[in-house]
Design a protein that fits this description.
The complex is a heterodimer of chains A (about 150) and B (about 170).
Chain A: H1 2-27, E1 29-33, E2 54-58, E3 72-76, E4 84-91, E5 96-98, E6 103-105, E7 110-114, H2 124-127, E8 130-131, E9 135-144, E10 150-151
Antiparallel strand pairs in A: 1-2, 2-9, 3-4, 3-9, 4-7, 5-6, 7-8, 9-10
Chain B: H1 2-39, E1 41-46, E2 60-65, E3 79-83, E4 91-98, E5 103-107, E6 116-120, E7 125-129, H2 139-142, E8 145-146, E9 150-159, E10 165-166
Antiparallel strand pairs in B: 1-2, 2-9, 3-4, 3-9, 4-7, 5-6, 7-8, 9-10
Classes of the chains: A alpha+beta (about 150), B alpha+beta (about 170).
């Protein structure tokens, strides 16, 4: 009987903890690992994959979807809803972006994202401007590894 | 004098502990509300002429579930809640009329009639359209939208009561 009660208590506590953690992760901030080197040297400046940077993603900006050129954002991939990418916004609605061959105007409600490492980045130069509704948060700081803790600027 | 200060502090500690417990119960309840509203089921007020005759002009309250789209189980003909690609602060309700890979033919201007346009929906995108072709801004105007913009699938209408039930 004692162990059943103990298991029930543990289950209740972890359920509550999970719900609170999920709410904080959705509304306040969360920590995500960065994979790939499309944002070098800002994130993952080395090619070792076991030294991935972990970054803090702020979710308060999702209240009004207020972003600015230069923000690094996490967004859902427009080609596969299960993937998420981290890139920098280089064009806000109404701005003109010069792509390889022509000049494109960013439509309203969309943004143009590019990785800092232009040679290995899969971004708006391939899949076009993305709706701002796909953005899931703004990256503010690197939090791991400890020697790379820093604020990510514009 | 010191005894009085000590007993006052002890009482204050008891009250503070009770206040903290009540606040934490409220906080846990609000978190549960957020998780249910975002991941399980929620109610939304929808209005506008773009989904006539399925949804009323003056506004309905519908229950929407948020599980299907996370597992990729949104199909043709579903009425979905979608974040507008033109304004991320606005949610719109439309019907899915095409999935990725489908070829769709539609008339660019239903009032004028004949010029039909044919389009193939790219990978990861869906085609949304309002039931009221004459008063709806949808994929015929802004193109297919990424699947991730879908936030929920309409289940049934709960208000006004004479129209209670599943949507046609």
């Amino acid at each position: 009987m004692g162990i059943q009660k103990l298991l029930w208590e543990v289950a209740k506590k972890s359920f509550t903890g999970g719900i609170i953690g999920l709410t904080i992760s959705d509304r306040c901030c969360s920590v995500v690992p960065v994979r790939g080197d499309s944002m070098s040297p800002t994130m993952n400046p080395l090619k070792n994959s076991y030294l991935d940077d972990y970054v803090l993603v702020d979710k308060f900006c999702l209240k009004d979807y207020k972003f600015a050129r230069g923000d690094v954002v996490v967004f859902s991939s427009p080609t596969n809803f299960r993937d998420r990418y981290i890139k920098r916004i280089v064009g806000m609605p109404g701005e003109w972006i010069s792509s390889s061959r022509d000049v494109i105007r960013v439509p309203e409600g969309h943004c143009w994202v590019e990785g800092d490492n232009k040679s290995t980045s899969l971004d708006s130069r391939t899949f076009g401007p993305i709706p701002l509704g796909l953005v899931q948060g703004r990256v503010t700081r690197v939090v791991w590894p400890p020697q790379r803790v820093s604020k990510i600027g514009r | 004098m010191r005894m009085r200060v000590m007993s006052f502090l002890k009482q204050w500690r008891g009250a503070a502990k009770e206040a903290f417990e009540n606040v934490s119960i409220v906080a846990k309840f609000l978190c549960l509300l957020h998780v249910t509203d975002r991941y399980i089921i929620s109610s939304t007020h929808v209005q506008g002429p773009s989904m006539l005759p399925t949804l009323n002009l003056t506004g309905d309250v519908i229950l929407a579930e948020h599980l299907s789209h996370r597992f990729g189980k949104i199909g043709l003909g579903d009425v979905v809640l979608v974040r507008s690609p033109r304004d991320p602060n606005r949610m719109v309700t439309k019907r899915i009329l095409g999935l990725e890979g489908d070829r769709l033919t539609f008339s660019a201007d239903p009032l004028v009639g004949d010029n039909s346009v044919s389009v193939v929906i790219p990978k990861g995108h869906v085609w949304i359209q309002g039931d009221n072709l004459y008063a709806s801004t949808d994929s015929r105007h802004f193109g297919p939208i990424p699947y991730s913009l879908i936030e929920g699938k309409a289940l049934l209408r709960v208000w006004p009561p004479e129209y209670f039930g599943s949507l046609r």
